[in-house]
Design brief:
heterodimer; A: alpha+beta; Immunoglobulin-like; five-stranded mixed sheet; 10 helices; 18% helix; globular; B: alpha+beta; 3 domains; 9 strands; 13% strand
Amino acid sequence: MKWVNWLKEKRVSRRDLLKISAVGTLMTGANAWNSMQAQTPAVAGAHPVSHSEDVFGVMGKVDYQQNGFDPNDILQDFDYGTVSQLENGQTLREYNIVAIDKEIEIAPGIFFPAWTYNGRVPGPTIRCTEGDLIRITFTNGGEHPHTIHFHGIHSAAMDGVPGAGDGMIHPGQTTVYEFSAAPYGCHLYHCHAIPLKRHIHKGLYGAFIIDPDPNRYTGEEQQIARTRHHESPENAEFNEMVMVMNGFDTNIDGGNEIYAVNSIGFCYQQDPIPVSKNQKQRLYLINVTEFDAINSFHLHANFFDYYDHGTTLTPTLKTVDTIMQCQGQRGILEFSFENFEDGMYMFHAHQSEFAELGWMGMFNVS
Amino acid sequence: MNANTESNNLDQMDFGSRQWMLLVLPLIILAVLIWMFVQLNPLQALIGAAPPVEELTIDRFSLSSDGIKAYVINGGPDPVTIAQVFVDEAYWNFSISPAAELPRLGRAIIDIPYPWVEGEAHEVVLVTNTGVTFDGAIDVALETPIPGADYWLMFAILGFYVGIVPVGLGLLWFPLLRRLGKKGINFILTLTVGLLVFLLADTALEAIEISEGLPEVFQAVPLIFFAGLLSFMALVAIGRQKETATSDVPRNKRLWLATSIAIGIGLHNLGEGMAIGAAVALGEAALGTFLVIGFTLHNLTEGIGIGAPVAKDRPGIARLLGLAVIAGGPAILGTWIGGFAFSPFWAVIFLAIGTGAILQVVYEVTRLLFESNENHQLFTWPNIAGLTLGLGIMYLTALLVKF
């Protein structure tokens, strides 16, 4: 009864304790008991643990081999599809995507029963040029109905939502999504089967990058478009990376236990991303985190230009070190470590909670 | 002759193979049936891909300059593997011994070098390999006492104030008690019953309350009843034995009654001491002063209760002191146990034993009252008045220690 209440419930706040303690002191005056309390410096003066630097984060490493995908590879694993030319000169890119139920290790020792596109989370990074004809053959190899809904411009029948076109694709069934890639930018695709929240947070999403076609622009804009366009030589001026900000609700309580970019908590903390001082950096950043209204990206010791949605050739935000994205929002970050000292430069969500639950990493600049 | 021998043999049953068969056969059939059930697994269709049932309980925390130690027990049916640990929503390094996988009823100690903040609250969450989480709260972070001269003394003083002081002071009214007539003594005895009934409810409820924090597998609430019942019966049996041995000397009988009241109250105070020690160790020290004084007043009546049965006699000072130590001393022991090695399981057991002991005393004193009444009437107005007063005093003084 008496004491146990406080042991178990958090009803007595720190403030209450102080109040009660003050009452106690008043009641007893200067008696032996007070001096006893004063004599317990072991309690009052103890200094807690030294703030060691190597004690936070997870223990151990995820078995990427077993998972079938490596977040270090996902960074630059662009899937250009099977390319061919149509009679009208349009480029056709064909992709095969299969939904697969698969248990993945999302932090060392923690396994999550994921739903995946092609066995990985995030799914393959689809990359193309604006105006290309995209043809995606989608087969549902999972146990639940799924779809692929692309952020981009397409017909209603190709929207990949229940009630439009082929609607939800049932286990074992196949459908084809086809559309011309537009507009250029940093986009995403995800399952739109109902219930939506579960289908997304289980892992059915991926990056969808449409490069601007330099031939459609002139002057300075054309130069910029060339650096964005994966088939132009100027694209090599940039080191390009894809980061999909996501989270996993492992105990199904409507909140994430693991936050990450590219699924594995702390992966780029454990394996810092090597970055050259002599190359400009371009980061395609996409937020598919469920349960939390926004996620964010913060770069240490540096600033970047930001292209919201990637649908412009000039930055929508210049010289910032933190941006936030709501669910489904994405953009392109451009920065450089030219003339920087060698070393580890951190990046993470500036929601400290997300950071310490896995969404943090390092650039190893040299 | 022959027939006789044969039947004798059967009676004495040199257990033949036939008999062995009969004994073992049901067990063999049972084993076969269980094996078949496991093989056939008729529930498979229902279970499907259901994840294993996981049930971890954090028994307690201890905090030191090395960080946080969490004591964990697996109360579920399946083994559980602790994959990661986060504190205040930050994944943290940890070491776990003896192993990250806890078998059923297995225990582990998790060492987390987390820089806890004195006086603040922390939340420790264990993540298993299936992603299930189990959390434990540190309400007020304070360094956990490690047995040292300072703490032995501090806890002893707490126990002294909560146990020995009130009981001893209560006994100081002894000379007054002796002046009372038979009616007066009877009144004090009913008052004693009142306060004991209060303690009975209090101790039982406290046991049940702590038991809520224990893993289901321990079936703590039934355990409280059984432990209470057993201690009640054992003490009554011991009382009978003593009674028979000392039946010629009623004085000794009364002394035994006083002693058993002291034992019952002592066990109660052991539990109370444990709770206080644990509370102080778990960071409720700021409440200490106020509560210790509350308990001192609250327990004052206990001394009167112990003295009442022997009021007619003239026990020596040594004897009275002895009673005070039996009844109050365990509070010191309790604060040590609670402060240095609090275990919810043992706290529940001790409190349950205390419940049984108090019940025994209520029973014995009631019997004494019953026998001393010419008409063998228990529910007389004076008796009810005494009982009510006893309950009332305990209730009112308890207001000092409840929030």
